[in-house]
Amino acid sequence: MKLTLLCLIAGLSLACIPSEADIRRDVVAQLAANPSTASLGLSVSAENRVVYLTGKTATKEEQQRAIDLARAVRGVKLVVNQMWINNAALADKVKAAITADAVVGNIPIEVDANEGAVRLMSDQTNRDERARLVQIASAVEGVQRVEDQMK
To answer: What is the pTM for the complete model shown?
Structure first.
């Protein structure tokens, strides 16, 4: 009798654990329902009850609010912060420096900046152009590191 009761309780407990899809859906809903995170457009994924938040924010406070909301969702055991703090001013300085260059100034490129780290993204570069773009970005005041995600 006791064994049957324990098995029933264990079975019900496992049935109460939300699926990965449920957790992801609930976190997305939490973020969308909150005025401070609704417009951020963060990406949410869940694996083994761990939630991964990815995307750009303007402040650490926005990131912390998103993390707190995700943690509050039933079934979440951990939240991993993969968000960037968008440093638009630094990104604009890097874009301006690239545009001013006669050799690579016309290459379509996307620039993100997270504090002092700059990420360069383009699918229309060759090896020499990538090296030049990294060199230009590295020379901009305030850039501490350049991440080359160009092809």
So the answer is: 0.68
